[in-house]
Design brief:
heterodimer; A: mainly alpha; Glutaredoxin; two-stranded antiparallel ribbon; globular; B: alpha+beta
């Protein structure tokens, strides 16, 4: 991202797979962190901590980041963002996304954890065509 | 000659039908191509990184686990 500063933006979409039982609460927790102003730090913490996503873990990650414990727990327990996560899942399904990670670079799909050169190639192509 | 008289009213009707058909075809083609190259994907602003004016958008569907 730094390499393409100002020329590329990243949109993260939730796609918890049914085979990962604890993924959905983790996605909802990240959105709670976002509502409290720390989406990306929490997001990075989840990727670093996977697969430790028990409720106590999710709350601990939030407090480690300085988020207010009570507000975070309330958000998590009320499942305030369950429908938002579900909307992303439905959108993924509508686009034919079947596995993670799946990327769309200016609409062009790139499936799986690809080498960074592949991303560079598609991004550079996209930059050339938008010039 | 063959018994069909092309009146100005008939000519206008045929012209209108063809115009509507042609515009519909253009709209359909434009919609189809657009959908193929850039599927419309909404974004929660808290889950977006980078300049809103960036010419390239990467949408990542991912799972934390």
């Amino acid at each position: 991202m730094k390499e393409y500063d100002g020329r590329v933006r990243l949109v993260f979409k939730d796609l918890p797979l049914p085979s990962h039982a604890l993924a959905r609460p983790a996605h909802e927790a990240a959105r709670c962190a976002g509502a409290l102003g720390r989406y990306w730090p929490y997001h990075d913490k989840l990727f670093a901590a996977q697969p430790d996503f028990q409720r106590a873990d999710l709350v601990r990650y939030a407090t480690d980041l300085g988020l207010p414990r009570e507000a975070f727990e309330r958000c998590l327990d009320e499942r305030r963002f369950a429908s938002s996560v579900e909307a992303d899942v439905a959108q993924a399904r509508a686009l034919g996304v079947r596995s993670t990670p799946t990327f769309f670079i200016n609409g062009r799909p790139l499936v799986g954890a690809q080498p960074v050169e592949n991303f560079r190639g598609v991004i550079d192509d996209a930059l050339r065509t938008t010039r | 000659m063959n018994g069909v008289r092309v009146t100005p009213a008939r000519r206008r009707r045929v012209y209108t039908i063809w115009t509507v058909w042609f515009v519909t075809l253009l709209a359909w083609l434009a919609g189809g191509v657009g959908a193929q190259t850039a599927p419309a994907i909404d974004a929660d602003p808290t889950m977006v990184k980078g300049a809103p004016t960036a010419p390239v958008t990467i949408v990542e569907f991912s799972d934390y686990q």
